[in-house]
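fyi for ur records
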Amino acid sequence: MIKKRSKIILSISIAVILAIILLAFTAARQNAVDLTDIKTMNIGSEMPEILYADDNTAVLSGAFGIIEFDLNRECIHSRISFKEIEKLNLDMPSFSVSADGKWIYITDLQTDKKYKCKLGTDKIHIDEDAQQNIFSPVLINQYDEKYENWFDTGYLISETVVIKKESYLYLRAKSDWSMESLQLSECDIKTNKEIKTINIFDI
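which gave:
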């Protein structure tokens, strides 16, 4: 009788564990960011930009749309594809991030119509509130005196840079213009030496 009860308990335990594993696997698949279009995507007319960065998160924009990148886990947390943004029928879209890193703002420079999206989601809403405290990355172009010292000019380089206390971050890509070659590089602000480089689309 005891052996029979033990077998029942063991069977139930195994069934519960398998159910939990299946649910976790299903949730992971549902939450996975779709990057199937990246392999055939090129950089486009403009190099992607860093809109925002702190110690945990970087927000990037480009032909892929907008992505939120987890710097600690080195993976893409969420993405708003450009196809999704195109549904808004914007003439001249401009992107920015709130200073606290919680909101993405999309503005049509032609009509001044504004939208917002909470980081970590792909739900875009009309923004009826005035935008305040926008994070401002630093703009550096190829004519800046720091350009050759700061960047590896063998790559395509983003025009926006985020400067932290002891380092700076910028985007770079191979000169073949492939989007899947996009990297986020962090360098020491005093020596310009590379601290680490992350492949954004590790696919």
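The mean pLDDT is 83. thats all i got for now
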